[in-house]
Amino acid sequence: MMMSWRSLLVGCLLAGFFAASAMAAAPLDIVIDKGWQFRLLPRSTQAGAHQQASSWRAASVPGTVHTDLLAAKLIPDPFVGAPEAQLQWIGLADWEYRTRFDVPPQMLDQALAQARSELVFEGLDTFAEVSLNGAPLLAADNAFRTWRAPVQGRLRAVGNELSIVFRSPIARLLPQVQAMPLKLAGNYPSPYGDEPPDAMTGNFARKPGYHYGWDWGPRYVTAGISKPVRLQSWHTLRMTELQLRQDRVDAARAELTAIASAEALRDGNFELRLWQTAPDGRRTLAAQRSAALHAGANRVELPVQVDGPARWFPNGHGAQPLYRYELEVLDGKTSLARLSKRTGLRSIELKREPDEQGRSFYFVVNGIPVFAKGANTIPFDMFQPRVTKAQLRRVLQSARDAHMNMLRSWGGGYYESEDFYDLADELGLLVWQDFMFGGGMQPAYDPAFRANVMAEAREQVRRLRHHPSLALWCGNNEQEVAWKYWGQGKALKEADPAFADKVWQGYQQLFGSDLRQLVAEEGGGIAYWASSPGDDLAEPANTPASGDMHYWEVWGNPAHPVSHYLSITPRFMSEYGLQAWPVQRTVDAFAKRSEQQGLAAPVIQAHQKFMAGKGNERLLKYVDEEFGPPRDFADFIYLSQQMQAEGIQLAALHHRASRPFTMGSLYWQLNDVWPGASWSSIDWFGRWKALHFHARRFYAPVAVAALRDGQGRTRVTLLNDRSHALRAELRLRVMALDGKLLREERQLLTLAPLSASKLADHADADLIGQADPASTVAVLELRAEGEPASRAVVYFKAAKEMAWPDAGLQAHLKRDGTGTVLELRSAKALARGVWIDFGDRLDAELSDNALTLLPGEALSLRVSSKASLAALRKALRLRAVTGPMR
Asked: What does residue 339 show for φ and ψ, rounded to 5 degrees?
């Protein structure tokens, strides 16, 4: 039957009406990232000396002033050479950004009387004055907050002018800091004269603290539009949040509450539907309800039950299945808004159980007491907007590959991105998340400062709480111990007891009460911890008996020998570390000429931030204690990595061997903000240092720890992080360096689940008898069913005192059906600390490195590189502690 033209016309009109209605109802979200320009504000105090920066030039948004200046070729690369002192003017200047944008017609439709439009700034660093079409719009003062401003009625169809002026945080804050009769302690005073050392401003700004310099990174006090700018418009309502609160999760059932938060422009009855996509891809309707919403803020709860849930586990304890939930809000048949979140179903709690020595500190996930193995993360670049997901994936995958299950996101940087947390969820990496307070003391006695922090904290807790990887919120890094034990509190009390009490009361209010209450209300059951290290404001702080601990008496003052790691047995070690230089190829990237590489070379000192560039002296001390003086700078690089790897291995295995008293070992640090000397195990380019190869072995789920102390005793402990018992064999061999076997024993045993089994405590004479300790080693190998073998080599003298014979290292590169293989063999004697690289011109990744080979032992390693086999053979280099090849 044919349709009449009248019916057809009516149908088209109705279709157009419903389409227009749907378009009007659907939220619009436009990213404003094109056409941005920047300049040094002409009225800025720095304009006269830097006129070349006062002209308008192209800018990237998101971005920073430093990276925009670099792209415009107005400054040298901040990471290459030693330009830091000459770039401090940037942090003293005021900067202006501008762009023009058009608005889609539907945003300007005056028929939509109740439409709402907002400009949304997800990150403004930091003191920003925003104008739209020549009129002030908002003033921002916190780099960690999202700023929203209503703009309905202020937009035009074409050529809207958006301008943002960033004020120098130093110039903005310095007058008020200088006016204080007594100053609050800061972190690292500037050596460049851009602010007085006795009036540091960083603690007064809600801005990444590391921008002001740290002992592993430069001082670049940047500014800019650090995250996207959006124009959002909606009619009727906007979904502001979807919380997925996990009320109960066990193997049989998961009980969740989906909490929808919405901002409505009118009263009305709406339909809410919650869709669940399970890890296997099945999509079902998990919950549905009608709700009467009123104009303003609304909160609606939808109960959800999942039978037989696929539970999320930390790396090493199970899989990481993830569920996606999508909330849809309908007005009749019209979909008004959608919002989705991904999560993993798991139970998690922080256990603080009293015993005769103090109180425990460990995490229980799905009923499993987890020994936390991992490291601390710092920002992944000095300039946050240029961090890519690929960069994050490379480092976090490396953490998983090293059997890590926890990372501590340190408080002197910024709250990590969704990409970071999504990857942590996928890789099974629990995250200890600090609030962004890195050290010193903040003016928490100021109600306006506290209110600003609380707005920041509420936003960040809500943003991150759905991630299954989130394990803990911690108030700050080292502020409590600095006040109590480092002289900050004492000095202020002596100068002005009333002001000191005011400062401490403000601290307790913010970190002891306000943030704790916020996390309890908003965090979905995640625990809160006042400060790291600490005992949640109990006395004393930073004690082995209770809470978490930072231990810096090795490396830091008084710079004890590495063996002192064995004398400290904490509940949870959340910081400890040893420094090392990155690999030669990374050093070559910033010190491009041979004359720039040397212990006293200015470029090298500029990239050594510990003790204001004198950290190489401390590093040399630790290298010399074990290995003796390096032969040249390349040897110094190599030995620094070997020292770092062996020292952290000693500490980490001691922590693991002390289970269950000790339940965590997070070394400082995983990654870098730039290429330079630091405590990292992965450098800024993503290249592994020797430490990371060692970490893959000392964090293995099943391992043998043979720890020799300074008194000549070796404690042997067998480690099993699996949740089930394992049958195993332990083989002990005592041999000369040339391979002559002096003693051999084998022992069959069963490793208890989730355990550290103390097996033996040997005096040197028990192991080697009358053999020469300078030419003898003990080798222990643990083989358990289904697990890679674990080996420990015990040395009875420092490396520099050993009588090393030539190991006769042999290396051969070849191709097989799957790629390039390196066959490595120690033909004559034990080879300690074998390091393989391919010079300063080839990038090649090896399946293993930083190896110790027994006499006659051969290994096959995979080599991943775009270089030809001939080029790899030509560039191949070997180093070892033993023999002349070092």
From this structure: -150, 135
